[in-house]
Amino acid sequence: MNSCFERLKNGLIDENPIFVLLLGMCPTLAVTTSAVNGVGMGLSTTAVLVMSNMLISMLRKIIPDSVRMPAFIVVVASFVTIVDFLMEGFTPALYDSLGLYIPLIVVNCIILGRAESYASKNPVLPSIFDGLGMGLGFTVALIAIGLVREIIGAGQAFGYQLLPLADEAAGKGGYVPVTIFILAPGAFLVLAVLAAIQNKVKINLEKKGKDASKIQSGCGGDCAACGGCASTSGNGKE
Amino acid sequence: MSEIKLKVSSSPHIRSKITSGNIMLMVTIALLPSAVFGVWNFGLSALIMLISTVAAAVLTEYIYEKLMHKKVTVGDFSAVVTGLLLGLNMPPSAPWWMGALGSVFGILIVKQLFGGLGQNFMNPALGARCFLLLSFTGPMTSFVYDGVTGPTPLAYVKEGAMDQINTLDMMIGTIPGTIGETSVIAIIIGAIFLILMGVIDLRIPGTYIVTFVIFVGIFGHVAHPEIGFFDPQYITAHLCGGGLMLGAWFMATDYVTSPITPRGQIVYGIILGVLTGLFRIFGGSAEGVSYAIIISNLLVPLIEKVTLPKPFGKGGEK
Q1: pTM value?
Q2: How many domains does chain A contain in total?
Q3: Cβ contact, residue pair B70, A233, below 8 Å
Q4: CATH classification (class only), B20-306
């Protein structure tokens, strides 16, 4: 059970698919115009990820190595189709706002990446928890990005008007939304800033000696070494 | 850039007195006629806008460099130029905090996060202007002049309504528009000063304007058949209306974001002219100079790669 917990933590923090591995950028940038969209996209991807990881892990000794990619795609596509129909039937509003991005979960590189690098080599239970951890990490990241974009770009959080908007016609002062954060450039800005913040936090933790051995992912570790201006400038003085 | 090895040969060396601080100071001086005219033309709101953009730009640069333990480069006037250019690109009726927010974006995101002066990949003032344009489309495109909100001359030009245009007003600058773009005469005075001081040369603005005139001369007729090929009034209106003059002389010539190779500068000017013409005649809005310049900024590394001159003795026929 210990390895299952470790898988969850790995997906949520150490190898967060969005902020550390930078996988699945297409849905991340496209659907995070609001936090609700982030929840919908994140949870539907999580469902597909858990199911596909489970099935691929079960079939890992049957699928021949040379055709594993087509086999993975067939498994993933089946689950995506199920999720697609379920969402169309039960949450039509969310389905409309996510639109094309639901079928596109098939080619989400987080799902194929986990199938290739984890589920096809490990037993069923850890694979399920790996899928769950990665999916929740994805969901948390999407909600975070969506929330920031929604608050700055529309003054709302989960659709609730957090900051009263200015109304020039009525002469009422208030928040003037910075619309660019709802548009495409805002996604890039928010993603970059959040990734930078989590790198900074991680590097600080590493310096304090906490957690140092656990950070082994491709980017998270390398960022400390390659050092943007943020990490090198303070080195000598702290 | 790091793979380029700079070799310092043995003495004697010539020491140049020109520093980036000097150059930026001269650009600031050259922008003053436009700024003064803008304040005279639009009144107090224009002055408040210019002060807020310049102050926000300088403060952002100072605070960021202090926090990041970097060398404080506020003294080299580059932040002042960015703030001033952004202010001149703002409509006078926009609230002052919008200009300040734009300055923070331009300096922090476009300039400092990419490594400060000399490292920015696009013109910070124009990056900030496009950020504001996308965020606050309403206030950024409503132009109040003499208490009346009306279309700019360029909007009439776009529709081909040539009888609404007074070319002399456009030359002097008593037309609605952004603070610094309206007066062609004030911009030309600044540009002549910069050319005489050797800060800019004619290559980029020259090719930009010539290409633009050719493009507009031909395609103006295509878009509006009632206007003939190379209709002088139509071309003058395009040249004097909107941000073309300010963009061509002060923003396209920015050292950091324009090619350094002579042939590259000509290619850059041609791309600018064609893009501006495309956006103005066939695009959705009446103005296209800022987008044309920042898109061309992004092409600069490619242009430089293609137009790199051959060192003496290399290449040629074997």
Answers
A1: 0.81
A2: 1
A3: yes
A4: mainly alpha
